[in-house]
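User: I'm new to structure prediction. If I give you an amino acid sequence, what do you actually give back? Let's try with this one:
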Amino acid sequence: MHRKAGNLVRAGRVLLAGIAESLAVVLALASLVFLALRALPGDPARLVLGDEASVMDLARVRAQLHLDEPLLVQYGRFIRGLCVLDLGDSFRRPGTAAMARVASALVPTAQLAALSVSIGAVVGIGAAVAASGPWFLPRARVGVERLLVAVAAAPLVAFAPAITWLLAVRLRIVPLPGDPEAGAGGLLFASALLAAPLAAHVGRVARAALSEVSRDPFLTVAIAKGGPPLRVWLVHALPAVVGPIVTVVAAQLGALLGGAVVLERLFERWGLGMLILEAYSTRDLPVLEGAVVAAGLLFVGVQGLGGALHVWIDPRARSGRW
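Assistant: Good question. You get back a string of structure tokens that encode the predicted 3D arrangement of the chain. For your 322 residues, that looks like this:
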């Protein structure tokens, strides 16, 4: 009983430390965004309105941006606005709150990332189990391992357009991922494209871990009892290697979110990636600030979630032993 309580206390400390670290990262990112947009050469108000803007219009925009205030006051106002989710109105869409636009783009990006993680984990684990069991011929097992290596090494921008052209344009089996009317089918196809590298990484790590577990006595006993091979691998072997799988998923979440932004831009699918580019090209500074910080917050959040899951599953993460 005391041991379980001690484990919970250690797990709580690890999680609190992770939350504090995540908040520090978000604050640092927000500060960099604030300083970068004000340290760039030129007048931010003129960047918004253009070179032909009148003096009165420039003064109006400077007042809206609070550029006539001391830098420290501007910074405090910016951080306070982030805390209450109010950075003012969008410059390009007056009357529309900047954070409302960010929220509208954050939802599809989060959906895309969450579904991609689920697909990547399930497919990767399935490939690892299929290639590890006794039902696979050695030559087929080598083929699966080579396929996983090839997919893990291929960049998203290299294979996503080719697969989309083949399946969505040539064969018309799936909808275009950027089609607004594609609905759930477009989201599923886009998520599958984004999940391919994650599935390959998960498959390689799970395959290696299952290979080590296959020589352990507990698995030999389970096989000797006459259980179906698939049940032995799913019920006995797979739970023993959950820790490494969670670790690799958590490590790949950052790349997955970056891939989501690239995929959105590649197929012109609405999300944070499109919003950041749109806000940058139109010099919509409140939206740009909010979108960049939201992207960083999403990244830190999913990394923290992966780390918390790892701490919950793997006792070594709670005790600090690796």
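You can read the tokens as a compact description of the fold. Here is one thing that stands out. The first helix runs from residue 2 to 39.
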